[in-house]
Amino acid sequence: MTDWMLRKNLFLCVLLACLHISVNAAPQPLPLEYFGAIPTTSMVEISPSGNRIAYRTTSADKDYFVVFDLHENKMVNAIDVSTVKPSFAYFISDDQLVFVAEETRRIRGFRGRHDISAAFHYNIETQKISQMLSGDNIYAGQAALGRVLAISEDKQFAYMPVWTDATEYSLVRVKLGKRLRPRILKKGPEDTIDYFVRPDGTVLARERYNNRTNKHLVQAYQDDNWVTIYEEIAEIRTKSISGITPDGESLVISSFDRKLNRWGYNTMSLVDGTISEPIFIKESADIARLITDVNRVVYGVVYSGFKPTYEFFDDKLTRRLEAIGNAMPDNAFYITSHTPDWSSIIFRLEGASTPGDYYKFSQGSFQFIASRRKNITPDQVSPITIDAIEVRDGHIIPTLLTTPVATEAKNLPAIMLPHGGPESHDTLSFDWIAQYFANRGYAVIQPQFRGSSGFGEYHSQLGDGQWGLKMQDDLTDTLAYYAEQGIIDSANVCIVGASYGGYAALAGAAFTPELYKCVVSIAGVSDVEAMLKQERRDHGSNHWVVSYWEKNISKGQFAEDHLEQISPINHIDKITAPVLLIHGEHDLVVPYDQSEEMFDALEDADKSVEYILLDEGDHYLRNYQNRMQTLQAIDAFVKQHM
What does the pLDDT average to over 126-147? Predict the structure, then answer.
């Protein structure tokens, strides 16, 4: 199919979807649950033959995984996954699925709560679901039981890593659909973090990292012996082993290219550890992730930014994806699933006039599968503009601006919405909080402040040591830009954020109190010094996670009171705007006492503050009731103070 034909096909597809859009009047505000609810359709996967798809469908009281036959145009079956609650799923054959579930809960015999993952095998024909890793040779108290490294060629076994005792991290073979004792293939010392194995059971390599000595090793299995092919001493690993080349002769690793100042992907020979020149790297974009199959064989990469772009080992596939992207420049295409030969691809379409729609692409044409949010029509999606804003020191801040439908972008009340991370970034997609606010008449500003990922290592590194400082200035300057353009009313702005964004919201309240009429912090950090102390308690002072945060937050070269100075909890007297604090009681990323202590300090100082502790809530608002409670509280709070 020619590029012109593909563009025509896509144009017609979107035109037909959008013909009913009204441009004469602003739509009425939609019900809260349209935004706060978990997407009604998600996790769309295609089977190896391309004949079947599977997807998760959810509502307030139902949670099912549906298998649908595309050729016969009928549902095969559906299974209730409300007790499993999968985070993602994939086919391993037309008749078998794997679910990976994650939850926060207690482990018998261990203190506190833990993030737990587990993998489940689902036989579509018998409708039997069973946990994939169990048995008396599995060490008790493990949290990560959901990793699958490969599936055997006959689709009868899975290869998985697991602690077989307190000092051995092993590679085991698990019989699918049977509760049998896993067979240990290789044992590894306690600093082992990964294995690489072929579907025929041939063990290729293992990766090790010792947090006490900072020694990073990659070892290949050669002639019945482990042979070190790479060694480095580093507080934070400079190489990450991520996959296997299609020929099975090399590992695919990420490393930093100093010439381009970007992270790229190279190959590492399994024979002698020779590292190639970058095989995937761009001067204009970071790499977000690898595209791999269930056996971690690498097909290509996804480049980050507001919209993903793709590059593959197969040049024809690269050109096909380029044509799709060029045909619809105002939209983003996210690959969610594909057949092994890439003859059929499932895309999630985001961006202009779509609440997030799934399409199957095959033989040069698109077939609509489902919408992520069936209650929201294309004409009700608020438009998103991409901007590049120069701030006070001349640096450019990529920014998303979401504005109400059919409303002139002039003198609008505004929401400053900094993202979490902070080493993360927003994308051109249906952001449920941004779309909710825009639906209520607000302009929503999402600056990719320095320290954000996705826009180059230089942009990311500029954030080191700038919590509460230049990272906060970037928010201030983007706000000033839109006020100068007449788009927003600078006297009518609220700042809302989650995780690091919650910190930024509290920092905005404390360090630039004149800018914001109200403040909403969801799972935010209020005391940076206490956060770092907690990380040291959780991981140990020598752990790479602690090294990362010390570099990111303080860069290791500030005055002794630096952490105290950038902590909003120490500047309560400067806060004038009313504050809403929301936190999950089971948050293992940012403990809820960060919000609780901020609440106590604000209340003691007679400041206007509300605090909501979400029952059984985690850091990511994955629970339907928690998301709805959060949005209802925000709705009432912002209405009151804006």
Answer: 80
